[in-house]
Amino acid sequence: MAELFTKTDYKNSLECGCYLWMAKKGKHLMPPTSASEFFREKEGEKVDALAKQLFAGGVEVSEFNEKGWIASKRLIDARTKVLFQPTIIAPSGLTCRADILTYDLKAKAWEIREVKSSTSVRPEDVQDVAFQRICFEEAGIPVSKSFLIYVNNTFVKAGPIDPKKFFASEDITEKVDAATLDTKKGIGATRKLLQYEKWPDPRIIESCTNPKSCAYLKHYLQGAEEHRSIAKDLSPKYLIELLRRDIVLLESLDTHFVTKIGYSPEEKFIDHEAIRGELKELAYPIYFLD
Fold first, then answer.
1. Per the CB 3.0–4.6 Å rule, which of 6, 68, 149, 279 could disulfide with 87?
2. What is the pLDDT of residue 225?
3. pLDDT at residue 227 in the model
């Protein structure tokens, strides 16, 4: 079987190719998980657990990876009405875990129901489900419809939470259909990034779609001693942004080369008097909300 490529891998690649590469090939370069990210993850788990209450009698697949696929396939072949967290592995190596899978008896196919803690359907959610559908169909499992279950932002808590009122569900089948071709192309392009073993690699750097502010570029290049050698292989667009952000240090490059790519260092000015003036306006006690 081909190397596994998960839904999380694809979602990481949508953020930045550097993020994808670090998560798979260079974990030591990855930034630590922030408190806010940890909080969102835990809140997402609570939302997932609550959404399962919408489908009484569902069967949970607790196994992962190959064992999860074997267990899920057995339940799918038995036409189990509702499955929670089934694992799918396609012959190409694509793999995903669906939040909720329901069987459509009339269509003799399955319905993917993705759960999100957001309050609307976002483009990245559609791509998430499109990835799942591609994975299912490559594995020979027919999909009839796709739904997104998200938080109803008009919900007001009064006593125990009623999942039927807390959530909204939207049929996104047409949106997923429209996104499938681009998602297939994206999967092919991003899987190629994982073939690059060298670090740092200009092809990984240039896979980043937002070099002006992407945080992952800095983490990808931290500690690299090859700034000078990779500079000649980067397009001016990317190199200039790296210089502006001090990710690649100006003094590490030849002056003639820097002039040739059209980079002019921006003068940095700190108005110390203005800062002192602002600080004098502060009155104690001071409270901070992080």
1. 68
2. 67
3. 60
Render 236-289 in DSSP notation, one character per residue: HHHHHHHHHTTSS-GGGS-HHHHHHTT--PPPP---HHHHHHHHHT--SS----
Distance CA 26, CA 198 (A): 10
What string of DSSP letters covers 185-211? HHHHHHHHHTT--SSS-HHHHTT-S-T
d(CA 79, CA 66) in angstroms, rounded, equals 20
Looking at residue 75, its amino acid is: L
Nearest to 80 by CA among 89, 90, 88, 71: 71
Sheet holding 5-6, edge to edge: 5-6, 94-97, 87-89
pLDDT value of residue 186: 94
Tell me what pLDDT residue 193 has.
93
Q: Answer yes or no: pTM beyond 0.90.
A: no
Rounded to whole angstroms, what are the CA distances from 28 to 9, 15, 220, 234?
17, 19, 10, 24
Q: Which residues of the chain fall below pLDDT 70?
A: 1, 225-229, 267-268, 290
Where are any strands of DSSP class E within the chain? 5-6, 59-60, 82-84, 87-89, 94-97, 100-104, 109-115, 143-151, 167-171
For 151-163, how does the pLDDT look when each residue is reduced to its tens digit (9 = 90+)?
999 999 888 999 9
Which residues on adjacent β-strands are paired with residue 151? 167
d(CA 104, CA 112): 10
